[in-house]
# Entry
Amino acid sequence: MQRDIFDADHDAFRDLARTFTAKEIVPFHDRWEEEGQVDREVWRAAGKAGLLGMDVPEEFGGGGSTDFRYNAILTEELVAAGASGIGFPLQNDVVAPYLLRLANDEQKKRWLPGFCSGEIVTAIAMTEPGTGSDLQGIATNARLEGDEWILNGAKTFITNGILADLVVVVARTDPEAGARGFSLLVVERGMPGFERGRRLKKVGMKAQDTAELSFTDVRVPAANVLGEVGQGFIYLMQNLAQERLSIAVASVAGAEAALRHTLEYTKERTAFGRSVAKFQNTRFELAEMDTEITVARVFVDRCLTEHVAGELSVPDAAKAKWWTSDLLKRVVDRCVQLHGGYGYMLEYPIAKAFVDSRVQAIYGGTNEIMKEIIGRSLVG
# Structure
């Protein structure tokens, strides 16, 4: 189906994103996978190209557009190229809303210009070694001493964790206040007591620097609190819908890329004297995947439209994240099967997609949590 949610400006931005990816990312991505993180310079290059902070006001060096479709386009182009190590979507889709909606004027002047130029790489630290999707189980804590918060705790699975200059940390600031006892503290590179642990060795997404972070009596100035003290959990709930939509965008794009690679392979590969694509079973497999991907694409595009209009609901974002990330798993698995033994060789894009795609159903809240959100919206 022809997608009708983009205009000429979006198309021009897609050309920019595609050209940038081909020139600045693809030639180096294999090396980055071996090294476990991308070069710092690619962030600066992205800033110069206008690929960071598209929704940040122009006065701070951003693009000045609140249209999330630009974010979606960049994600789609990165996924299409297999650039799973690039943390731009985390910066643009996940962290940006916290800074734009919660930072005061002084904080915006201090952080947003570097955010947009690529000089400041950001991360958000929610998950802990003992807690996953259960955010209310967070143990990292901070107590106020004068005009500083003394922060202690540990976080894990933190995307951009090694490169990050600025980390939004979710901490318990009032142990007696339940859900209203959490706050968001911004920890900056170089603060005493802020340490990065090992770069985590993952099954896939090997160029993406995922790390453990620890905080030992880190003195965080009160001026680094995002929003109001005690409102952190509410802020998280408000911003998670966009993060989940971002995952859905990436999941559909990943399924489309897997199908594209498999179509090319089955047309070229021969067995028993004819191309693999000529076998009825292959055609049925391709037909089923193409249909399911098309249905998912239509739904996600509708979610994008609703989000741009400020009308995307939390349950619909959960539906998009759950359904598309599960679809991605199924599609990639079937595509590996159609590749035969070559589907297990990392020199083929489908093998890399196989290991890169599995985590989509886990981060941003596991798909089981997504079903719980949807179920509660139905029965109360």
Observations:
- The CA atoms of residues 49 and 163 lie 20 Å apart.
